[in-house]
Design brief:
mainly beta; Plasminogen Kringle 4; Hepatocyte Growth Factor; two-stranded antiparallel ribbon
């Protein structure tokens, strides 16, 4: 994977950071390279603005500071600093647990009281010895630990949950397309947070009650994609993080073809793959892979099974019928007139 695979992307979010550097870059990949090379501080995230092509490398991530909406901004946070679980012995654990398994608060790594530490941020600059967070700088087989604030206990281990092994090889644990049909049992988000049960309203109230969405398989607290998001997600059990994507690997085999792509309107037209590219009022459709005159999120690469080819009318989001963004700058989008299928499907995929 590329450099951006190590980051969690959130569109439309800005975070306040006291410690930052500003660069001019051409794209997100270049900005990520600036973050990796940052020497003024430990870069945990970066912001990229599309209009100004501005790159801000940040010492803080969204867990550590204030966030607010900003349409043009994209926030990328290093996943390693978001994980609240450990992989293996947790040498790369960079979460924020700061008490021992017995509940004793940890001593700050930079302090010398009540215990004089052998492991300090100065001696081990790459070990993530921030604040008083549990870490494993010496590769201890029993996992992350910390010096304690109890003068009678020099150090103790921390109770860090194991990360699930997300990359399994069963057909059930991979996703086709955007994971709308994913029925696996992953129940942690990509940063390691446990998912909230779909039939619960705490800590987050929501409208995705399993009874109201019988076809979406909203079982237990498993990651699902009931609303056509980029990939499966869930509400989290962390009161400060409403929802987050889950890390479900893509299946390596192609989905079975369930039927011919339709060249006429059946139902809402979600399977329409015809070549009509003009709206009800006669506006020409904007190409899906362009952002002019209208910026949008329906990017073909992100939605591989929605048929977002050329500028053809489509229904990727369950609207009443197929639609498109228009080439008229004053009309963002409109429905298209698609001929109804007469009883049986007359169209055959590939017909001109």
């Amino acid at each position: 994977g590329g450099i951006l695979d190590d980051y969690l992307r959130t569109d439309g979010v800005w975070i306040l950071s006291r410690n930052k550097q500003v660069y001019k870059t051409n794209n997100e990949k270049e900005c990520a390279e600036k973050c990796e090379a940052e020497r003024n501080f430990n870069c945990r995230a970066f912001l990229f603005t599309r209009k100004r092509l501005q790159c801000l490398t940040l010492a803080e991530n969204a867990r550590m500071t204030v966030t607010f909406n900003s349409t043009d901004a994209i926030l990328y946070e290093k996943k390693i600093y978001l994980l609240q679980c450990k992989r293996g012995i947790g040498k790369d654990y960079r979460g924020t647990e700061a008490k021992t398994q017995r509940g004793i608060p940890c001593q700050k790594w930079a302090e010398k009281s009540p215990h004089k530490p052998n492991y300090t941020p100065e001696k081990h600059p790459n070990a993530g010895l921030d604040e008083n967070y549990c870490r494993n700088p010496d590769g201890d087989e029993r996992g992350p630990w910390c010096y304690t604030t109890d003068p009678s206990t020099r150090f103790d281990y921390c109770n860090i949950p194991e990360c699930e092994d997300w990359v399994t090889h069963t057909a059930e644990e991979c996703m086709q397309c955007n994971g709308e049909d994913y029925h696996g049992e992953v129940f942690r988000t990509e940063s390691g947070l446990e998912c909230q049960h779909w039939d619960a309203q705490e800590p987050h109230m929501h409208g995705f009650n399993p009874e109201h969405f019988p076809g979406k398989d909203l079982k237990m607290n498993y990651c699902r994609n009931p609303d056509g998001e980029l990939r499966p997600w869930c509400f989290t059990t962390n009161p400060t993080k409403r929802w987050e994507y889950c890390n479900i690997p893509r299946c390596t085999t192609n989905p079975l073809v369930s039927g011919l792509d339709s060249q006429c309107l059946s139902g809402k037209g979600e399977d329409y793959r015809g070549r009509i590219a003009i709206t009800d009022s006669g506006n020409a459709c904007q190409h899906w892979n362009t952002q002019f005159p209208h910026r949008h999120g329906w990017i073909p690469d992100r939605y591989p099974c929605k048929g977002l080819e050329e500028n053809y009318c489509r229904n990727p989001d369950g609207e009443k019928r197929p639609w498109c963004y228009t080439t008229n700058s004053s009309v963002r989008w409109e429905y298209c007139t698609i001929p109804h299928c007469d009883g049986t499907e007359q169209g055959i995929a590939g017909m001109s």
